[in-house]
């Protein structure tokens, strides 16, 4: 019996939503759908403005700081990529010297 009530409630809610949307014109032509969208946006926007308390905003330059950090990160990344061949060359020569020293016995591991 509980499953029957549960399913009947679901069908009622879905059926009501479909009926309401059909009466509003959602399932009509493109122009009718656009008009429904405009009405809905207008009503939601006005309700939101009425319910939103008036808050004073502080003018900050958050986006300027974000842009500076982003640019610094990109510069760091590309400088690292540009210097990568030199770093590889330096480390490979150090590795070769260390291997030669270990092979000749001059340096203990």
UniProtKB/TrEMBL annotation:
Chief location of this protein within or outside the cell: mitochondrion
UniProt keyword list: Membrane, Mitochondrion, Mitochondrion inner membrane
Highest taxon in the source lineage: Eukaryota
GO cellular component annotations of the record: MICOS complex
Any Pfam family the entry gives: QIL1
Entry's localization field: Mitochondrion inner membrane
Family per similarity comment: Belongs to the MICOS complex subunit Mic13 family.
Oligomer and partners: Component of the mitochondrial contact site and cristae organizing system (MICOS) complex.
Job of this protein: Component of the MICOS complex, a large protein complex of the mitochondrial inner membrane that plays crucial roles in the maintenance of crista junctions, inner membrane architecture, and formation of contact sites to the outer membrane.
Protein name: MICOS complex subunit MIC13
Protein's organism: Biomphalaria pfeifferi (Bloodfluke planorb)
């Amino acid at each position: 019996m509980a499953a029957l009530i549960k399913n009947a409630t679901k069908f009622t809610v879905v059926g009501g939503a479909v009926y309401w949307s059909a009466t509003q014109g959602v399932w009509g032509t493109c122009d009718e759908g656009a008009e429904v969208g405009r009405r809905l946006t207008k009503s939601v926007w006005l309700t939101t403005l009425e319910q939103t308390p008036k808050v004073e905003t502080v003018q900050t330059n958050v986006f300027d700081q974000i842009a500076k950090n982003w640019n610094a990160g990109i510069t760091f990344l590309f400088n690292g990529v540009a210097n990568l061949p030199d770093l590889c060359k330096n480390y490979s020569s150090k590795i070769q010297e260390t291997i030669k020293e270990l092979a000749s016995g001059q340096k203990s591991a």
